[in-house]
Amino acid sequence: xxxxxxxxxxxxxxxxxxxxxxxxxxxxxxxxxxxxxxxxxxxxxxxxxxxxxxxxxxxxxxxxxxxxxxxxxxxxxxxxxxxxxxxxxxxxxxxxxxxxxxxxxxxxxxxxxxxxxxxxxxxxxxxxxxxxxxxxxxxxxxxxxxxxxxxxxxxxxxxxxxxxxxxxxxxxxxxxxxxxxxxxxxxxxxxxxxxxxxxxxxxxxxxxxxxxxxxxxxxxxxxxxxxxxxxxxxxxxxxxxxxxxxxxxxxxxxxxxxxxxxxxxxxxxxxxxxxxxxxxxxxxxxxxxxxxxxxxxxxxxxxxxxxxxxxxxxxx
Length: 316
Description:
With about 325 residues, the chain is of the alpha/beta class. Helix content is about 50%, strand content about 20%. The strands form 3 sheets. Strands 3, 4, 5, 6, 7, 10, 11 and 12 form an 8-stranded mixed β-sheet that branches. Helix 1 (about 5-15) crosses helix 2 (about 20-25), helix 1 packs across helix 3 (about 30-45) and helix 13 packs antiparallel against helix 14. The radius of gyration is 26 Å and the shape is elongated. It starts with a helix and ends with a helix.
C-alpha cells in the first residue's frame, strides 16, 4: 500500500467519479482505475461499488477513509515539526476565542508577544463555533468558557482550566446598593439593568443562575456594545452585571463594583487544544506568555493546570 494510492483513494472518495477525480489529480482515468484496483487487490475487498457511471463507498472504503485521515494528519504533523526546525522557530499561530471578553483578553498579550517573537505571525479567530474550528483544523488552540463539548471533548480535546472569573454588580458611585460589601442577585435583578443580549456568554451565566433561583431577568436596555454599557452606567441610566475582566478594562472614577452572592456568578476560563494536533512553537510561546501575564495580574491558576501547561510547553 503506497501513500500515492491512498492520496488517489481520498480524492476519489471526495469526487465519487473516476473521470473528475483523475482530472483533479492530473492523471489519466485508466491510471486511476488501475491504482484503485491494485489497492483493492492488496486489501482483498472492494472499496467502491460500481453503479454504472456512478460509484459509492463500501463499508470497507469508509474504514480506510477514516484511517487515511489519521495517517495524513500524522504526516502533516511530522512535516510541521520538521519545517519549524528548518525555519528556526518561525511559524504562524491561529488562536480561537469566543467573541467578547475573551477576544479582548487574548488581544492584550499581542504586543508583548510581537516584541518577543517579531518573526511569528498571529491571527485571532473570534467565533461562536469553536468546535467546528477544531474539527476543520483551523485553529492551533482556543481560549473559551467551560461548556458542554459532548463526546468530542472526551475523544479529541484536551481541556486545561485557567482561572475562574467572577461577574460583578457595577453601578454609578452614588448608587445606594453600593453601601453593601456584597449584593444578593435578587436585589440586583429588581433594578433597571443594562445587559448584554441573551446570546452573549456573560448573559447566559446570569440567565442560568436566575432560572435556578426562580428569578426573572428583565433588563431595561440590551446592547452588545461594552462601551455603551459603561457609558450608560456612568450616566446613572442603570446598573449592570459584567465580568471582572471587562470591569478592570473599562472602569472609571464614576462607577464602582461589588461582588454578587446568593448565588455568586462565576464562569471557568479554559485552554483547549486537540490531543492529536502538534502544538507548534508559536502556540507554546503565546501560551507561556499569556499564563505568565495572567499570574502577574493576580489570576489564580491551579497547580494541576500549571503542571499540564508546563508539560505542553516543554513537549517536543
